[in-house]
Each structure stands twice: as C-alpha cells, then as structure tokens.
Automatic annotation (TrEMBL):
SMART domains: HTH_GNTR. It holds the Pfam family GntR. GO terms for molecular function: DNA binding; DNA-binding transcription factor activity. This is DNA-binding transcriptional regulator, GntR family. PROSITE patterns: HTH_GNTR. The keyword DNA-binding applies. It comes from Peptoniphilus asaccharolyticus DSM 20463. Residues 6-73 form the HTH gntR-type domain. Keywords: DNA-binding, Transcription, Transcription regulation.
Length: 211
C-alpha cells in the first residue's frame, strides 16, 4: 500500500492506529519498523514517529528497544472500565447539577442515529460501531464542559475502543438498546436509571473478555 506524501506523518499514524484498533495487529504483536516500512511502502522515520506517538496514547509499548501492540489482560481492562465509569458518572453529576441535559440529549440523539444505521447494515460487531459506542459515552463528558474530565476521557479514548473490541458480549443490538435506555432516561430525567445502566455497561468480570 502506498501513502501520498502529503501529511505523510499523520496518514502513517492514522493507518497504524486503525490497524491496531481494528485488531489487524493483535495484542502484544511485535511492530518491527522494518516490516511496517515494507508493508506500507514508506520510510522508517514517519513510522518510528507514529509508533512513538501511539505509545503516548497507550496503544503501543516500547520495551527492550522494540515496539509492540499493548498486551492488555482482563485485569487491565477491568481497571480501565472502572476508571472510565468513574469519569462518566462524575460528568453526569455536573450535567445534572448545571442543567445541561438538553445539550446532552441532542448529542446522544445523533449518536443513536449513527449506531442504528450501522446496526442495520451488519448484524455482527464492527470497528465503526465500537467507535460510535464509545463516542456515546464520551458525549456525557463533553456535555459537562469540564476540560479536565474531558482530557482524562480522551487520553483513554483509543485504548477504550481497543479494549471494548475484546469484550465477548459486545453485540450491537444489546449495546444499542442499553444506550437507548439511557437516552429515554435522559428524556424522563431519570438519572438513577442512567447511572444503573452505565454501571451495567462497564461493570464486567474477568470472564467477559476474549483475549
């Protein structure tokens, strides 16, 4: 595959990132710069720079002088889910306290429409659906308009997409319906229902993941 020289660094970064998130490269898989250079038909420098940036995002590890995809285990995914849930619940408290529900409803309405469209095209889970699924949860943090909560969530955004793809029970119908429950609870201002459903989405056990 040949990449246009315009914005080569950015294109290289996006391509490698998409391949990690779509599980083209597996958890713990070695990412040799020479192999990627041959595979993508570009020089070593933009690949090395991209891998370094992906390391800062948590998707790539650099150990013993070698890059590899992060090797997530069930324990790490559970810890990630807990951190994200705490972040979202804190944001929800702000949304409720500062009466920003209408803003959140508009954001989630668009997200649900995107999920519904993707769900109608394919009965199995896919990368694009997972992104919209994570974005739905991010909208709660976005609506809170707290830059520190949003920065924390965004620092975990990519790794959350990757971790979600290894959940055995990520079925589009199930997760769309849970998000629909949250949306309806927003309309009804049933905030306890929202909290309960969010906990259902994120509280897993170590048998929940296909690693």
């Amino acid at each position: 595959m040949e990449i246009k020289k315009v914005n080569l660094k950015e294109q290289t970064y996006n391509l490698i990132k998409d391949r990690i998130l779509s599980r083209h490269y597996k958890l713990g898989e070695s990412l040799k710069i020479s192999r990627l250079s041959e595979e993508l038909n570009i020089s070593n420098t933009p690949i090395r720079e991209s891998l370094s940036y992906l390391e800062s995002e948590g998707l790539v590890e650099f150990l013993g002088g070698k890059y590899s995809v992060i090797n997530l285990g069930a324990k790490e995914i559970l810890q990630l889910n807990h951190a994200v849930l705490v972040n979202i619940l804190a944001a929800l408290d702000i949304v409720v306290a500062e009466d920003k529900i209408e803003d959140l409803i508009e954001l989630e309405k668009i997200s649900l429409e995107n999920q519904k469209e993707l769900k109608s095209k394919d009965a199995t889970i896919n990368f694009e659906f997972i992104k919209t699924y994570v974005e739905f949860n991010r909208n709660i943090v976005l609506a809170a308009d707290n830059k520190f909560l949003l920065k924390t969530f965004d620092n975990l955004f990519s790794i959350l997409i990757l971790a979600t793809s290894y959940n055995k029970k990520v079925y589009m119908d199930i997760h769309y319906n849970l998000h629909l429950e949250i949306y309806n609870a927003l309309l009804e201002k049933d905030y306890e229902k929202i909290r309960t459903t969010l906990k259902e989405l994120f509280n897993k056990d170590e048998t929940s993941f296909e690693l």
